[in-house]
Amino acid sequence: MQIKKMNVPDFLTPWLDRFYEPLEIDLLQILASKPLEKKQIVRLLEKNKTLKDYNNFDMFLERAWQRGVVKFLDDQRIEPEDFHIRFDFWALFEGWKDLPVEIKDRLNDWELNHYIVSHAQKAEELKNKKQRDPYKIYPEYLLLNEVKALFKKIPKFYLWPCNCRAMIGNCEKPEFTCVRFSNNRGIGWEISREKALDIVQEANKNGLMQIGELGLDKHGMITGALCNCCSDCCFPHQLSQKLNVQKYWPMSRFLAQPPTQDCIKCGKCVQRCPFEIISQKKDIKEKKRLVPVIDAEQCRGCGVCATGCPEGAIKMEQTGESLFEKKFQ
């Protein structure tokens, strides 16, 4: 099978049967040179004697599209889908199917590098204070009250697994936490606004950060997703670390303030901070813990420390506006 057009990494060639079924491989071989109409595909498959059940061919094509194997062009011709898309759906819904650990790790590195290359320019532009394009998706930290306001403006909600945790798997945080505002290829589960908010609040309770992957559609309406992210698997956080754009990808608009006098020195904020930038020392003489100290230079403004404080002693100061802030209200 010709795989260059599909962007399949060379090291994965011996493992393609983990990603494509036999008839899908035949289909992709037929489409390797150029996109074709359905009737042309059927004729070639029949000629090759690989199509045994024409009556279910439409169902087969629909499934291949849902699995990220092929895509339909505007003129209804069909062509192979980019393997980055196939890998995304495969990782989300089909599992690793006995891939060796070393192949899995190489595949994750390959996908992460693709993400970094694809978004590096946008991240650098934000760091250089260039205005963002509202019609492109950018990640930004949202506080819980902002999520509640945002959700009032969104008509439909769909639950998906988190593709970062499904692929990377560096933590044991819940995976079914991605709330999308559209349903790509009809795969996600439609849920109510109330259920979507419950998922977000539970995710925050479990220490996950709320990141809006937001942009505007052609009608000027907010589109994208609300992700509940960890710092171990999240692709945006991996990018920010590698490119040194920690305050800009995801976009940071808040800053955790030093604990107020209501602080009971319980240390929960230290435990919850995803980036380990809150420290707490002990007074050796009195054998008591001191008030936690927040490293303001390193704070991303995710707000997880504040939501986990039992006394509400940590406040979040707003340092910048979201492009969509007025739409939240």
Can you offer a commentary on this structure?
The chain is of the alpha+beta class. The chain has three domains: 90 residues, Arc Repressor Mutant, subunit A; 158 residues, no CATH class; 65 residues, 2-Layer Sandwich (Alpha-Beta Plaits). It is built from twelve helices and 14 strands. The strands form five sheets. It has a six-stranded antiparallel β-sheet with strand order 3-7-8-5-4-6, covered by helices on one side. A two-stranded antiparallel ribbon has the order 1-2. It starts with 21 loop residues before the first helix and ends with a helix. The model has no long low-confidence stretch (mean pLDDT 92).
Distance between the termini: 52 Å
Strand content: 15-25%
Category by helix and strand content: alpha+beta
Rounded mean pLDDT score: 92
**Strand segment tally:** 14
DSSP helix count?
12
Strand order of the largest sheet: 3-7-8-5-4-6
- Poorly predicted ranges: none
Largest sheet properties: 6 strands, antiparallel
H/E element sequence: HHHEEHHEHEHEEHEEHEHEEEEHEH
Shape: elongated
The percentage helix is: 25-40%
Radius of gyration: 23 Å
Number of domains: 3
